[in-house]
């Protein structure tokens, strides 16, 4: 019998400058093209063409150790969305919970739980740091706030760090 797999969890609270009903629709593989410069995905299944329960898409960013398949496994409009992300080496439970913070703002609580499936996955998860996670989340927070305030994508040199390998 195998012991429990290696697991690591991270949490970050993004402070967003719009109410949940403006933020939530942007947490979508199709809509992220509007506000994340280096975003790229292959939409594999969606009845509507947008985020919905059971939507499936694939990403392959150069900062990841390989492609990931994302499944929207929970979808509570304007409240929360859960992506189950998998590769051959690990699984990520990626939850975003929106909390109305008043004054036209939202706290987006981002939780990622990584679980290794293989030894290679264990090595990848061991290499993850709180600092890198917080930097990535802070960058996404800035991109989303810029879009919410200006209706346009923030363009910067740092965007290239997330570029897709396809």
Task: Explain what you see.
It is a single chain. By secondary structure, the protein is an alpha+beta fold. Helix content is 20%, strand content 36%. It is built from 3 helices and 7 strands. The radius of gyration is 16 Å and the shape is globular. It starts with 6 loop residues before the first strand and ends in a 16-residue tail after the last helix. About 3% of the residues have low confidence.
Q: Key terms for this structure?
A:
Alpha-D-Glucose-1,6-Bisphosphate, Chain A, domain 4; 7 strands; 3 helices; 36% strand; 166 residues; alpha+beta
CATH class: Alpha Beta
What is the CATH-assigned architecture?
A: 2-Layer Sandwich
Instruction: Please name the fourth-level CATH homologous superfamily.
Output: START domain
Q: In which order are the strands of the major sheet placed?
A: 1-7-6-5-4-3-2
- What percent strand? 35-45%
Mean pLDDT: 92
Strand/helix succession: EHEEEEEEHH
Helix-strand blueprint:
Blueprint: E1 7-16, H1 20-23, E2 42-45, E3 56-59, E4 68-76, E5 80-86, E6 90-102, E7 105-116, H2 119-127, H3 130-150
InterPro entries: START-like_dom_sf
Q: What is this structure, in a nutshell?
A:
With 166 residues, this protein is α+β, with helices and mostly antiparallel strands. It has three helices and seven strands; from the N terminus they run E-H-E-E-E-E-E-E-H-H.
